[in-house]
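User: Hello, can you help with two protein structures?

Assistant: Certainly.
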Amino acid sequence: MKLTRHRLTACALAFLGASAFLISPQARAEEFSGAQKMDIERIVHDYLVTKPEVIKEAIEALNKKEKLAEAAAREKILTKDADKLFNSSNQAVVGNPNGDVTVVEFFDYNCGYCKQSLANVAKLIETDPKVRVVLKDFAILGPDSVEAAEVATAVRTQFKGAKFWDFHRKLLETRGHIGKQQAVAVAKELGADVDQLEKDIKRPETRATLEEVDLLAEGLHFSGTPSWVIGKEAIIGGVSFGELKSKIDNVRKCGKATC
């Protein structure tokens, strides 16, 4: 396990605080002198050198605490904001809109792993007529990604269902960096009204849609793409077709992505 300087410092400060607590209340109320600070630092140093395993124990406890906090935050989103997550009017739904299991993908049009995952999502839609897929533009890879997401959001006012899926696939399959120019070109090629598209890009609802996704991702502690929600399970990173199918089957079998 690699220990970062930040975590080492945090551990040392925690021990320093514990040492200060052991000093009498009167002493704690007074500002430590330079000599006292040096003594405390020496005590901390000598203790950690003698018992270095304390650092590992502290980091493990911190990791456990952080994971519990993340799990609690995700559970809050999955219950309190479930409607925004699964049924928002601001999202794209492909596959079977009335499917019995919903897969939510947070993606970025410039994400290489999202491009790789496209084939798995496409296969899922083609082979499972009861799956419902929700696509959320989580544009985190720079201004071009934001512009592409804005275009895609505006395109949804003209393209629905399978038509939007065609746009989404073609844009993700576009080589090179993707921004507004590439997204508008794909929309135009598929028959979008470009003049109306330019107007819709500037609508406040477009920005509100992307902000909604950002808030959901923040609550779910998603920091990268692709990220997924299947059932009530949050998953970060690329997922194989087999894994996607297995989790969907589990939801049908026991109501959870992992039985």
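That covers the first. Now for the second protein you mentioned:
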Amino acid sequence: MNAAKPPIRRAIGLMSGTSLDGVDVALIETDGEVIAGFGPTGYRAYTADERAVLARALDEAGGLTDRAARPPALAEAEAVVTRAHADAVAAFLVESGLTRADIEVIGFHGQTVLHRPALGLTVQLGDGAALARAIGIKVVHDLRAADVAAGGQGAPLVPVFHRAIARMAGIAPPLAILNIGGVANVTFIFSDESMLAFDTGPGNALIDDLLRERLGLPYDDAGAIGARGSPEEPLIDWLMRHPYFAATPPKSLDRNWFSHRMVGHLDTPDAAATLTAFTLRSITAALDHAREKPARWIVAGGGARNTALCEALGQHLQTRLTRAEAAGWSGDHLEAQAFAYLAMRALRGLPITYPGTTGVAAPMTGGVLAEPDAEEGNLPEN
């Protein structure tokens, strides 16, 4: 007799990206395999003071050799992250007319401050146990650590979700789903539905850092500032010789491997144009690693709103990019939805990482479960 099919449940995903802007919240309905529907979304911005705390933590995290260590700047930032996520969930439930009993699980990514898988280090700030106690819902967190401990890259984690939503939308492979966040990553889904995924290089983070420092702006709206400038092509050529771009995927990138200060000698439009072109070139180079040319590219994340970048990218890829919204998806909340899906898969002991997505030896589950009234513990293996 076949086992009973698991019921469809509501799950909430939380994502705080490398751009340090705030917390995305999203609800989906899923059994960890099929996505039955998308629910409401929400957002809780970090305050200027909170962003300053997180920026200090990023600076201090570079010296970590123990992923469990919490020197003062990181301890302060972890408290900020946990409190902001608890606030975000509480507001989301009220605004959506939901109660704690309506939610099966919350997927809590936390705030990445260090990601160096070659050293066995990946650090996402956020106290999962404290969050579960604060909101009264079980939480799956620390979703990258098991993969890194098993020799994987621990990133990207979203490809299995990308494949699920492509199936839901009836979009046939070969397909590329590109997320341009602080760091950009791509999922190639081939005709046989196998996946190859990796970080392509910097996304928005360097451009955002530049404009925040020079102009007090959070980002380059529609790419207008960069569009006024001219990229310094020799610098971009030199940057593209970094060994990361020639490395065979799967592979992942630490946010701090590159700095916006490498364009410090340029005026702001030229600096923004150079950083934008660097993002463009690194994404285009990702196609060299695909064994099958995608028939379609779907782009999500904050970079999808950079009109100048996306138009130039379409020209370089010789294809028209489709924004996630045009596919019926939420471009701004796709990663939060993904962590809701991953949390439900983790609860069932289903794989969340694969050889083609993180380089781990075999498909594996991950995450740590925190119950509101119990000690946290590792989730079951598939």
